[in-house]
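Hi, here's the filled form for the chain we discussed.

Project: internal
Contact: R.S.
Residues: 267
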Amino acid sequence: MLTKKFIVLLAVVYSATFLSCSGTKSGGGFNLFAIEDDIALGKQFSAEIEKDTKNYPILPEKGNEAAYSYVRNITKKLLRTGKVAYADKFAWEVKLINDDNTLNAFAVPGGYLYVYTGLIKYLDSEDQLAGVMGHEIAHAAQRHSTQQMTKLYGIDAIRQIITGKTDPGLLGQIALSLVSLKFSRSHEAEADQYSVIYLCETGYNASGAAGFFEKIGGKGGNPPEFLSTHPDPGNRVTAIKRKSQELGCRGKDRNIPEYDKIKKGLN
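And the returned structure, exactly as it came back:
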């Protein structure tokens, strides 16, 4: 349920028909949602996604304990760096989606992270996966989804709440649209930069995400959604490596044999 604070804020903004003086700024973007709303919406959206087993078949944890533990440990390492906003407030739950044909990962508000088995099997090392995970964590921590939702759904949601004509299917519609949400170029660039910042505080190669972009660049196929607004992976590789150099990051690629074992063990 949306918080009372958010509903009151919506009423104020709607009556003023003016967005620039209300709401909050996070990650450089306007956001009608409070942190509590990110948390509440994340719970609802994750439930909507996980009950849609046809489009989002969650990989069973039974029989895949090693893979789940592996990916969740990567997430914990990044959260422990002290660089992730809301590390102690958001859920930071990780689920794997059993789809070997999709190279994707995504996050919904409140720190709910989803990684496709196709992406895990496509990558070559733990550092590359950590780089992609850092990118998705950044989208949640910098609240990019609710910034986009403010832009795409804010006025509509306000009008429905104020008039009492809220569509009961609206949350489900928005939740599923988050999977294919196209972030702005600035959001994508910011997520790339934060991925480096997170990884730099660990033993990982801080340019881990660049390894993925180098591999997928020029290969065609269906790229993941976080490539949608940056058509040239080469630009992202350059920016990621430059950031790593600026920060003086010294981590190196590692755990490739263990990563290969995890890939082969996915059921």
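Let me know if anything looks off before we file it.
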